[in-house]
Amino acid sequence: MLDRDGYPPGVPCWVDTAQPDTDAAARFYRGLFGWEFEDRMPPDAPGNYLVASLDGLDVAAVGSAPDGAPATPAWNMYIWVESADATAAKVLDAGGQVVAEPFDVLDAGRMAVCTDQSGAVFSIWQAGTHKGAQSVNAPGTWNFSDLNTRDPEGAEAFYGAVFGWEATPFEGGGPTMWRVPGYGDFLERRDPDVRSRQDDVGAPPGFEDAIAWLMPMTSDQFPDDVPAHWSVTFAVDDTDAVVARAADFGGNVLVPPFDAPFVRSAVISDPQGAVLTVSKFVPTT
What we know:
Shape: globular
Radius of gyration: 18 Å
Structural class: alpha+beta
Order of helices and strands: EHEEEEHEEEEHEEHHEEHEEE
Helix content: 10-25%
């Protein structure tokens, strides 16, 4: 895939996880994906922010868990915005909450931590020197994020109002695509063959604008006490091999490898409990 240098407004742009033991988390993800890490925090900072790279390109990060963080870490998603302050105001107007008011992250950017109308947590990112993930969709990098919610209609209204997202059902059934109209045009300017490649593998109409998935939560999949949440998926070249490595490096296999349209996926957790999906793209044509 082509290297990235920024994202349009409304497009997810970065993922990280805050962990009690950053060194242990780095060992796990180095073994799992081959990531290398660099601490981007100043020497006198109270914690770490270990930015992961693959083939020299930034792909994700492992940070120190702040005081008061949940006991079990999670993967967090950031959405690119032009103004963190203006978007935080939109979140409130749309019925969400601003958990952490907009603040500067050195010269890297300005961010806020928010929740949607059902309580699913996400962050917004106004870029400074940090322009988000430089490589995505390649094996070992972030692929997609899913909103798991029991209120899909409310989610459509919320994310439409805040980010201009459109929810488009996947042709033939299955999950719903979150789309940012015009994102495909942005991609095509740097990658003129993106639409033809998607057509060649049977992607549905509008897939070039897809930026995430909307997944209704059902009682047979999630206990009633599991709240709405965002989850992340990383692309891999061999799902079964990555699952085996996860176990070797101290992770847990929550859902063994399974086949679904276009993918072979599995759900795992790292040694400290952060959950992630790993997925190999399997074209159907």
